[in-house]
UniProtKB/TrEMBL annotation:
One of its GO terms (molecular function) is ceramide 1-phosphate binding. The lineage of its organism: Eukaryota, Viridiplantae, Streptophyta, Embryophyta, Tracheophyta. One of its GO terms (cellular component) is membrane. Residues 652-740 are annotated as: Disordered. It comes from Hevea brasiliensis (Para rubber tree). This is CRIB domain-containing protein. Residues 76-322 form the Rab-GAP TBC domain. Residues 601-614 form the CRIB domain. Residues 652-672 have a biased composition (Basic and acidic residues). SUPFAM superfamilies: Glycolipid transfer protein, GLTP, Ypt/Rab-GAP domain of gyp1p. It comes from the Eukaryota. Gene3D superfamilies: CRIB domain, Glycolipid transfer protein, putative rabgap domain of human tbc1 domain family member 14 like domains, Ypt/Rab-GAP domain of gyp1p, domain 3.
Length: 740
């Protein structure tokens, strides 16, 4: 087994020289200045070049995979042949097959993909059209959203109600895939093209249809994007992604009590505990013993920790080291398999064709139960930073509320009005508390971070005009954009509601010392955010809250060296007036929005997003030893328009509310129901409590809703996608193997 030190050396060493890689993966001009430095360089004599790749085939097409693996493990793969090489590394083809056999398999797979795609297109015509959707097309109970002008323009309209549960679940995720596609690899010129974005959307949509057990979960877009860029044929990109998901799909599986990647986190903990007990104990003392800080690393294979080029090099290095020649027959249908030699291959021949890491597993007869190489890679990164972690990752001076209490003193002007920047900075000081919750609070942290960024961007556009918090809202009232789902007014509303939840949580910690952390979180949620959630978002929260950390460990971590209970009580007492003032001010803009049961948060996939990767921006007090792994520009909510970056909880709420109300007209086709439940059924049902009375909203408010509907149709809502620039020239290299 490759040790941690060896892996750290491969990952962290800086190699110089070589060809400039920008020509293969060009960055948008506005992103080039702040782009992090790429470590990987093409190295003559070590990188697998096109010439050496062609020389590795026999006349009839058999590939000398052992020679290829050695070359990849020494210097990676040249970008011109990266796509076709990946197909072999991921098990799309058997190296012992011929050119003709692979051509037959390729043709069969393309036909199969087109069949699946046609099935999807019959349900949602936009698929395959070169466009994609970013707003919901169907309600939770299968009713078509009739008046979504954006979807109609994009071809996402669904004519009839849907009753099949599989189809409903699939349709519910399509707009979430679209929202994630818009945010994927934004720094690359390739995705300036709407056609290329649609290609990524098509692949992910078809995969969600084929693998209905897993469906779509955020993070799959990061895995799929390189395949779409490297392989010109969409079907080939799909099958490459499909094979990758064969390795990773359990990372994205969630249940009521666990997340797939948790098993790897547990293994990572054991590895560090064995390799470096002192470091492990230090992390335990800081409350990091569950290694949740490595969650994203393992979930998407370091895609957001490194540049695009470095992540691709890292992937092919891992896949080469984990390669087993039987991988093709393992994934392929027995009737289509062409791996005729593996059954008779001797152990010596098998070992020769295995990667370094897999060779050890075969020798120890542990091939079927090996630990993923990514776990050891994460361990190597942590171990390589041993000294810096021990030195810089220390406990707090005071409690976690110390900074918040100081911020409260500066959040108002001399005449008592709330100041925009100090108030937002005050809200930021709460984020380190959420870091200690791990996955349980990723939803709340994502929402808070996104809404803070949205308001900060508005403030930065004119600091003198927006010095006072409510001046931001009043400017949107004057512009008649306050009710838009991407407005700063809406952001302030949801930021306030999220803070309500946290204040109630802190109060429960003080009032109920005998409660578990799950009880504390659940009760706080029921008293605050739950009334704004439909059943799907509530389900997501319920699953996430079960992942709350041990109470004693949590309290020890946030205590620092001060009086935790005293600081917590002071925070709740002094911060609550800010929230109360917001609640008094905002209903004047939103009319009876505070009582509107249709208001809901979250997207359909959120029930699977309990393993949510979370807000991409940095923590407020992130340690300097992690600076080396900052996300590339475009992946961080702080680097662009926050409206595009964070939409998990609040940004799409208003557009969904408007869309759902439009589906009320379909109630005429439903069986007669009692008055108390008729409206519930017509609007999706799940968003309502069966005990609530029918809305007594005045007519003026309903006219306001129709006005909001008009705004949505005019393209003013968050769901409207920005027009893409003309498609750039193709970046796909021609297939380098002698095949069609």
């Amino acid at each position: 087994m490759v040790g941690c030190e060896g892996l750290a050396g491969m990952l962290l060493k800086k190699s110089g020289g070589g060809e400039e890689l920008g020509v293969f993966y060009p960055l948008r001009p506005e992103c080039q200045e702040n782009a992090p430095t790429t470590r990987f360089r093409l190295r003559a004599g070590k990188t697998l070049s096109p010439r050496r790749w062609h020389a590795s085939f026999s006349e009839d097409g058999h590939l000398d995979i052992a020679k290829v693996l050695r070359r990849i493990q020494r210097g990676g793969v040249h970008p011109a042949i990266k796509g076709i090489v990946w197909e072999f590394l991921l098990g799309c083809y058997d190296p012992n097959s011929t050119f003709e056999e692979r051509n037959q398999i390729r043709q069969h797979r393309r036909e199969q993909y087109n069949t699946w795609k046609d099935e999807c297109k019959k349900l949602v015509p936009v698929i395959g059209s070169g466009k994609f959707i970013t707003t919901p097309i169907i309600t939770d109970d299968g009713q078509s959203i009739m008046d979504s002008s954006t979807n109609n323009a994009q071809g996402g309209h669904v004519n009839n109600a849907v009753s099949d549960k599989k189809v409903i679940q699939w349709m519910l995720v399509l707009h979430q895939i679209g929202l994630d596609v818009v945010r994927t690899d934004q720094t690359l010129v390739f995705y300036e093209s709407e056609t290329n974005q649609a290609k990524l959307w098509d692949v992910l949509a078809v995969y969600a249809w084929v693998d209905s057990d897993i469906g779509y979960v955020q993070g799959m877009n990061d895995i799929c994007s390189p395949m779409v860029i490297l392989l010109e044929n969409e079907a080939d990109a799909f099958w490459c992604f499909h094979r990758t998901m064969q390795r990773l799909r359990e990372n994205f599986r969630t249940s009521a009590t666990s997340i797939g990647v948790q098993a790897q986190l547990s293994t990572l903990s054991q590895v560090i505990k064995t390799v470096d007990p002192t470091l492990h104990q230090h992390l335990e003392d800081l409350g990091g013993g569950e290694y949740l800080f490595a969650f994203r690393m393992l979930m998407v294979l370091f895609r957001r920790e490194f540049t695009f080029v470095d992540a691709l090099y890292l992937w092919e290095l891992m896949w080469a080291m984990e390669y087993n020649p039987n991988i093709f027959s393992l994934y392929e249908e027995p009737s289509a398999a062409t791996d005729k030699s593996s059954a008779t291959m001797s152990t010596k021949e098998l070992l020769k064709q295995c990667g370094k890491f897999e060779r050890k597993n075969v020798e120890t007869e542990n091939s079927g139960h090996q630990i993923a190489l990514a776990v050891f890679l994460a361990a190597s990164v942590i171990e390589a930073k041993n000294k810096r972690i021990l030195k810089e990752a220390k406990g707090m001076e005071g409690t976690v509320f110390t900074a918040s209490l100081q911020g409260i003193q500066h959040a108002r002007s001399q005449d008592g009005k709330i100041l925009t920047k100090p108030f937002l900075d005050l809200c930021k000081t709460i984020l380190p508390v959420l870091d200690n919750f791990g996955s349980a609070m990723s939803i709340v942290k994502s929402d808070i971070g996104g809404n803070i960024s949205r308001l900060e961007n508005k403030y930065s556009s004119n600091p003198s005009e927006f010095t006072l918090l409510y001046s931001v809202v009043r400017s949107e009232i004057d512009a008649k954009t306050a009710k838009g789902s991407s407005s700063c007014t809406n952001g302030l509303l949801w930021l306030t509601r999220a803070m309500d939840f946290l204040v109630e949580l802190f109060r429960n910690l003080l009032a109920h010392p005998d409660w578990s952390m799950t009880q504390v979180c659940t009760d706080s949620y029921n008293k605050t955010l739950k009334k704004w959630h439909n059943w799907l978002a509530s389900s997501s929260f319920s699953v996430a809250l079960k992942l709350a950390p041990d109470r004693k460990k949590f309290m020890d971590v946030i205590s620092g060296k001060g009086d935790l209970n005293s600081d917590m009580e002071k925070f709740c007492t002094n911060f609550s007036p800010f929230l109360e003032e917001n609640h008094k001010f905002l209903p004047g803009i939103y009319a009876d929005n505070e009582k509107e049961p249709e208001m809901q948060i979250g997207h359909p996939t959120d029930v699977k997003h309990v393993a949510h990767i979370g807000w991409d921006g940095p923590s407020v007090n992130s340690p300097s030893w992690m600076n080396e792994f900052k996300a590339a520009p475009g992946l961080s909510a702080s680097n662009g328009d926050a409206n595009d970056e964070i939409k998990w909880v609040s940004e799409d709420a208003a557009s969904r509310r408007v869309s759902r109300r439009a589906s009320d007209s379909s109630a005429r086709d439903l069986p007669e129901l009692p008055k108390s439940s008729r409206r519930h059924s017509s609007t999706g049902g799940a968003g309502y409590s069966p005990t609530k009375e029918k809305s007594d909203k005045p007519k003026q408010s309903r006219r306001s809703s129709r006005n909001a509907n008009k705004e949505l149709a005019d393209g003013k809502s968050a769901g409207t996608r920005i027009q893409a620039k003309p498609a750039p020239a193709r970046m796909h290299p021609k297939n380098s193997e002698k095949e069609i």
